[in-house]
Task: structure prediction
Amino acid sequence: MLVVQKYGGTSVAGTERIRNVAERVRQSRHKGNKVVVILSAMAGETNRLVDLAKQVSKEPDGREYDQLVSTGEQVTIALLALTLQSMGVPARSFLGHQVRLLTDSSFSKARIKSIDAEIIHKELNKNTVVVIAGFQGTDPEGNITTLGRGGSDTTAVAIAAALKADACEIYTDVDGVYTADPRVCPEARLIPIITYEEMLELASSGAKVLQSRSVELAANYRVPVWVKSAFLPVKKNGSKGGGTLVTNRAMEEMVVSGIAHDRNEAKVAVRGLADRPGVAARLFAPLAKADINVDMIVQNISEDGYTDLTFTVSKIELPKALRIMHQQVRKIGAQKIEADEKIAKVSIVGVGMKSHAGVASRMFETLAREGVNIQMISTSEIKVSVVIREAEMEKAVRALHKAFGLGKK
Amino acid sequence: MLVVQKYGGTSVAGTERIRNVAERVRQSRHKGNKVVVILSAMAGETNRLVDLAKQVSKEPDGREYDQLVSTGEQVTIALLALTLQSMGVPARSFLGHQVRLLTDSSFSKARIKSIDAEIIHKELNKNTVVVIAGFQGTDPEGNITTLGRGGSDTTAVAIAAALKADACEIYTDVDGVYTADPRVCPEARLIPIITYEEMLELASSGAKVLQSRSVELAANYRVPVWVKSAFLPVKKNGSKGGGTLVTNRAMEEMVVSGIAHDRNEAKVAVRGLADRPGVAARLFAPLAKADINVDMIVQNISEDGYTDLTFTVSKIELPKALRIMHQQVRKIGAQKIEADEKIAKVSIVGVGMKSHAGVASRMFETLAREGVNIQMISTSEIKVSVVIREAEMEKAVRALHKAFGLGKK
Result:
């Protein structure tokens, strides 16, 4: 088997933990697997580098920023290769540009264009463990680019796809994907198998276990992805405690397979907006231009030619978004702009929704019974998201988890 | 003027100090200079990385080691470029491979083969400050290589040579080259101008202000090198307090221009060695093969067909050297092997020695008067080095400094 293993920042925080990773790699190789390892930077290191950049520059240039923050992964891959070698396991580390992981030039959120699989296959055929820096690539001019936060998951899936690997194993500090966040909902259960679609909705709804771009990529290239604990004893794929398999078919079609929550969004309401064609475009185009990601958008029914527009952005980008909104409103006119950071988004996700009616209404009834007021609603084919008060989030998650029978076996 | 400026680890230790470097660069550019900056890693960072490598591997593989330790410079160049940009100065950072600084594949002590000056000139012509990582390059296979400790000086001189720069300015924590180490000899004076030859002898005799490889390179390509303080106010080249100029001609031919000392060597004596042709080669060839640098070698006059060989190596390499010596002696036979770490080397250097007789004897007389016993002697055309007891080193330096009139104006 050709296996791509990815280890996150907490799994490589310090040489002791790197030794633990090396031991897992050795075991996988001992079973006869060819192993490619993708690593993140040590936990905290990327933040330290970002902090240095902030000390010298308010709006750091993307190219220099990426040159800076890509060093964290370079340290961990070299250390893992050295550790493997000291255990007698041949290993070789590669930076993004050394495996020609080509991206576009969108610094800090570059998109992967191609990978030179030949370089990697050549090393694997020599029986060498190939250790590759996650999160980074190079553009056609040789500038170092990074893929954005959590980009190492994307690196792992992209490399698994390029190599046509048998499995992509994402090792993290949880042992799989749960029906809800166990810290919020103690009855949450591990989901043994889940579809790409569901995983994608969960990831983009705030479940932090996988980066949504990596799930998208896995779905496109049909890469089977395992989410596993980097700290529990190694178990066979698919066995009890063996993590979650993300694939193109669920074992059984649960109506709802999981509940996700997200506290990182803020709500912006633009009230008393003249309801003319093109007004939404004039509000949102400059946000897009400033690379601010708008998540939910709700427009009220127009009244006397005026309307309200409400949308959510990440809390970090709220000040920038408000600055832009005030500029735009000065041009196009509106009554007022309101912002609220004390909100949370709760989402239910499940492929079963496609065929089962009444899922959304059961969600609303459950929340009503708990006295939780719904501020915004957004739906997709396999997801319903609501925005509620942040203080009521935990209560809402637990009630929904129970209402959809996720706690029972 | 095209100026290459190099700043060492203490000059870039922290974002405050990096701002100081940026200010100096800005001033130089403001005078109309095109500026290329070469940086070291933050003071302590390379040691931290080396320490991590040691934690995971007793004898780290060169390729992975270089992959690891080259990250320190990547951090400082990106931070300097960001700092310059935030001051309104266009700047761009480059790694070794990004300016095609090609080296051989001798990891951790790679030799520079070529540099793509065009890439740098193109940026300079756009009026951009070019910031380049010192200490690192790339081999023809794309592996990252490093040039060895202090390699950033060599990077600076090599780039100055490739660009045909008007000056190469090495900024450090001292304000120039002194007649002796001021911490040992309070009467030491700054040398305003010194020849490459003298600087080379001083550097290889333990004066730490410039790496000897960089001086060699400067001499070969006739690059004028200034040694200056990174912390004192900026002064005009050649003005009082303006540092030391290393060039091909001295202002006046001092008989002795400086005194260097080195506490980092250890002495190894092989006694009772059968004095046959080829015996020295059999002793030293395996040392060379193990990359152990032997400095001084003294062979006693043979007596009854037996001789003693004494040599010095760096203290760090002593255990390895002794291991090899014991192996070799087992094959070729000798009475015993002795090692002494409590030694120091003191050297007097000056181009004037070529034409002035009696310099060495004045040195020996001075040491005899101080009661300092000489254990080994080695001479070159412009240098005399002696090995003495480490405890007597400071006394010897001060006495010699006085005897050769270096303290007076």
